Amino acid sequence: MSWKVLIQLRKFATTQSATKSGKKLLEFNQIPGPKYYPFLGPLNDVMTLGKNEKLHLTVDEMHKKYGGIFRMKIDSIDTVFLSSADYIRSIFAYEGKYPKHPIPPAWMYFNQKYNIQRGLIFMNDEEWLNIRQVMNNFLLKDAEWSHKLIEMTCDNFTSKLKRILDSEDATVIENLEDELYLWSIYSILNLMLGSSTSEQTDREFDAKVWEFVNVVKKIFETSSKLMSIPPRLADKINMKVYKEFESYAHKSITLSRSLISILSNDMQSSENGLLRKMKSQNLSDEVIVRIFSDLIIAAGDTTVYTTLWLLHSIAKDAALSTKLRKDIGDNPKSMEAPLVRAALRETLRLYPVAPFIGRFIDTDAEIGNYSIPKGVLALASLYTSSRDPANFTDPLKFIPERWLRDENRQVMNPHASMPFAIGARSCVGKKIASYQIHSLITKILQQFTLESKNKEDVKLKLHLIGVPDKKIQIAFRKTLP
Ligand code: HEM
């Protein structure tokens, strides 16, 4: 052995630290990753991570270069990106009693600047746990109360589709995305109220909901553009995009207050609605408004884009439509068609609306061969792990059957795709979202045929969440009157 190799080995040994498991670990600063130039400050992020819209692709390239774990500073926070399924699972093992996730910097800055208290997404520590336990009871432990309401909202949607097709004699629904937004927001409103506030019953209310839809969309669009600029700086130099973001954020709060106040005064507000359920837990009106406006922010885009991707995948594949229709026919009770459930699972694998899920590590940790100090931000690179052939056979193909139990499973590692996250801070709306999407797809397939009109491949881009890079165009034809 040459003296050079001996020196290398010695260096290696002294930079390893012993751990609880007795395993020798490498230090945090030995994790590979791109170079950081302190004098460049925030410019480092822009230079290394590039365009925000393509962050998932840049990170994917970096995983190819550095492996299943790499390290960098983002906004001067020590961050690790993880794409190996085992590493991803470890993140949640170290999240602690009060898991903390990263919040887009513009949102954090805005809340602090105006001292605005927000809902579940922004809460932390004991306050978060108390509210989360209340919401878990209503949305996760027992969500059956929501089924009828969700189905009513889906029936309203398919009736509207038919009206559009009748009146315009058109097959392509040009504003499908907007229609889905309305559906998604009305779903939450109906759940709050406990009865169906269908569109067109009250013009003023409708106008407010429509305005809310646009405001929520703009919040995502503008805060995504602000990801690579420190918001304090953007505010100081009066950047147009920051001013726009602020005005939409203010509007969303005003609008959610006014929607809630209309709903609360509504005599039809039923025992079965989330509003009454929350009030029965002695939550103040102020806290209820905070929770409600964040539920809409969390529920709106995620449900809309997942549904759009799923409709797009079905519309492209006539054989899949036939199989899904047969499966729905064989399983007449809603939510019992296994292939529809599998198609949703497959959509969330290939097009995760949250391609990165993060946790601040709560205690000194071991991930892989590395020691990770408390406080580091660990980000699960779900876009990469979901498309890794080590985890899924033919990973780029849309194959719902891979999720069926009795099939020759093509899922080597289900944890590589965790679209709702896992653990105590995972999506509190996952049951509602799954039921909503499942019901809507079932009703659409029972009443319409779909055909994709997109000529080019539609890819995922980031607008804070994963959205299609082109307008999704689907021709609908009625199969039932
Ligand atoms: C397909 C649709 C959806 C997807 C893919 C999705 C995904 C997620 C993910 C990944 C998280 C966790 C973020 C983290 O761990 O840091 C989350 C959190 C959350 N989701 Fe969803 N979501 C969806 C629909 C919904 C719906 C319909 C609602 C409301 C009914 C909702 C309400 C929330 C809330 C309030 C949180 C924050 C929970 C907390 O911080 O304790 N989501 N969602």
UniProtKB/TrEMBL annotation:
Positions in coiled-coil regions: none
Pfam family, one: p450
InterPro entries: CYP11_CYP27_families, Cyt_P450, Cyt_P450_E_grp-I, Cyt_P450_sf
CDD domains cross-referenced by the UniProt entry: CYP24A1-like
Signal peptide annotation: none
Keyword terms: Heme, Iron, Metal-binding, Monooxygenase, Oxidoreductase
Cofactor(s) annotated in UniProt: heme
Family matches, as Gene3D superfamilies: Cytochrome P450
Keyword Transport attached: no
GO molecular function terms noted in the UniProt entry: heme binding; iron ion binding; monooxygenase activity; oxidoreductase activity, acting on paired donors, with incorporation or reduction of molecular oxygen
Amino acids binding heme: C427
Homology family: Belongs to the cytochrome P450 family.
PANTHER family: CYTOCHROME P450 (PTHR24279:SF120)
Protein name as annotated: Cytochrome P450
